[in-house]
Amino acid sequence: MMTKHSRNAAAALLLAAVLPATALAQSEPAVPLKPTIALTPAEYARVKLYADQGIDELRRFLWRTRMIYNFQMGDLLGRDY
């Protein structure tokens, strides 16, 4: 017999298993990088990680790290952006 607590725990586990799959299915297309500035391999890898998750994640990364890297969207996506 399942108690109320064990039903809630089972529902939470099921939800935790389903949510990441849903988030991956709704991901944005990757953003192609065309840097117009010199990037170290480590900087390029970090920017690429977020660019592969879509434009919104790249924008959030640039906003969060603006005082560290001072990257601009046009510096990473080419002058056409």
Q: Which tags fit this structure?
A:
81 residues, mainly alpha, 4 helices, 59% helix
Structure description:
- This protein has 81 residues and is mainly alpha-helical.
- The protein has one domain.
- The protein has 4 helices and no strands.
- It is elongated, with a radius of gyration of 19 Å.
Q: Would you kindly provide a brief summary of this structure?
A:
The protein has 81 residues and is mainly α. The chain has helices at 4-25, 41-51, 55-64, 73-77. It has one domain (4-77).
Topology:
Elements: H1 4-25, H2 41-51, H3 55-64, H4 73-77
Structural domains: how many: 1
Order of helices and strands: HHHH
- Mean pLDDT equals 83
The helix count comes to 4
Counted beta strands: 0
Radius of gyration from CA coordinates: 19 Å
Structural class: mainly alpha
Terminal Cα separation, in Å? 60 Å
